[in-house]
Every structure is written in structure tokens, then in C-alpha cells.
Amino acid sequence: MGSKNHSSDEVDAVITWVDGSDPAHAAKRANTLKKSGKGSPNKLPTGHYSTRFLDNGELFYCVASLRKNAPWIRNIFIVTDNQVPDFINPQIQQQSGIRIVDHKEIFKSYEWALPTFNSLTIETAVWRIPDLSENFIYLNDDFILCSPVSKDDFFQDGNVILRGKWKTMTHYGPTRLKLNNLFSRFVKKFLGITRSLNLLTQIRSARLADFKEKYFYTPHVPHPIRKQTVKGYYQNHPKIFEENIKYSFRDTNQHTIQYLANHLEIKNGSAILKPNNNAVLINGEMDLKYSIHRKIKQISNEEVKFLCIQGFEAMDWEIQNRLQQLFEKMFPSIKKCKSTKV
Q: What is the pTM of this model?
């Protein structure tokens, strides 16, 4: 796919987003699930659950936070499946540098992989966005920048800034995977907790970069990625690319592009490793109420740069309302349209 030449100083943001409540999208998802079946031994049991596709309105605050706290970002690419977020119109697109990218654009020549409802599959192809800058930041739609950041928070002198810590690899054999899948079904049914096996995908990604015993664990933070790093890898390993995009729903055989990129950069000596001491994850399914209030206080006191919100729909009304008030205080100049849900 062709792209223009860009200054190495330019940085774009890439966000993947879906509104699973859209009847057309829900029908397409149900039809694809029916064709693929639920019985694959390697399919992540929670990968097709409707909560994975909910739009709780976090995207609005994600975009607002990028424009307020990272105004140096050139374009904000929102990757969607034939959808446009409710709050976006041509005027907002122009003012905020937002560009909507359909799955068909990034899967050009790989249309056989569509439709897909798998974030891991979609992420694998985001480097194919036309006109994407060499340095870009990948975010889920539930990421929010809580305070001003600079390019040096992500890229420095040709290096990427990675936040996390080293961990010993765990072996996931067939028996362990089967037990994990059974446990995932159990905790979802009885505790309402959606497990993603994120550690497994991080380990798989590290192994692709030839790491054998330890991997650099990265929490839920925005991910700085150099396009040429992943492009070069997949061009040299086209079968790995094709294998990873063939799954319509999450599968335990998959790796994750951002963690692969991280370990390739570490291997190449082009990564600066830092501890994760300025990020917070709020999980409505797992966090106790007092824990969420404590984290909100941290954000209010400007102790946090990066916030990730998961399971918003599982939070009680009081916490949802407190979060909304916090975001409106953080972004006072931005008026939210009535159609957004948060």
C-alpha cells in the first residue's frame, strides 16, 4: 500500500473502535459466529461476548484527551467497520484532524479475513493505514490521557519508550489452555468477569521476537510503534501475518502487534524501558468500589498520565456519574453531544 513521505517528527494516533449495539453490526457478528461455531478448542471463550463490543462513549473522551493533552499529534485515525461515531461530523473531523478508516482499507488484498470482530486481528493490520506516519501511537478506545504529554513520552532519538517490567514466561500447554478456558467461562458466568488472556498474547508475541525465558510485560497504556518495525517483520514473515488475521473472533493462538513491536525494538536495541508508575486501570468488573474511588482521587490530584477504563457498564450509577463529572471537569471546553452514552 502506498504512502507519502513524512517528517520523522510527525506522530499519528490510531484508535480501534466499534459500536456493537448497532443492529447491522450485531446481525453481521451473529451470522459470522454462527458460521464459525463456538466449539473451536483454541477460541477464547469470552471473545464473542457482547460486552467486548459495547460502546460506552469512552471514545469521545479518548479523542478529547488527545487533542487537549497531546496537541502535537498530527492525525487521529479511527479504525471502524463501516461505522462513524455519533459525535463526529465533518466539522469536528476537520478541526480535530480525525480520519475514519474502514476495515476494508487496511485489509486490502486480504479481504478474505473480513468481516472480523477480533481486535487482535484488526490491530495486526493497522500499520497498513494509508498515509500513516512512521511513528504512531496505538490506543484502545477506552484510553484517556489525563495530563499533558510530549513526544518524548513515547519516542526519543529514534527509540520507543516502553513502560512495564520484566516477567518470567509461563508455559501454556494444551491442558493449561483448556483449564484457562473453563475458568474463563466460570468467572464470566458466576462473577461477571471477562478474561482476555492478555498475558498469553504477550508471551506469544515475545517468542516471535526470539525471547525464550523472560518477556517485557506491558500494562494497559498507549503504545508507541514504529511502522517500519512491524511492516518489515510481516513482510519477512507473511505467513505469520496471514495466520494472525484469519480469526474472526479472538483465539488463543494469536499474538498482539504492539507486544511484538515492543520485543522487536528491545531486540534491536531501540527501546528505552521505564517503570509503569503513572498509569491507572479502572475495571468495573473486577475493582472493588473503594478501589475505584481511590483511583479517581489519584486522577483528580493529577497523579496519573494514562487511564484505561474497562467494564464501564458494570459500574454502579454513582461511580459512572462521578467519572463523567471528572471527565467534564478535565475537558471543560468540549461540549458533548447528546447521542454519546457516557
A: 0.86
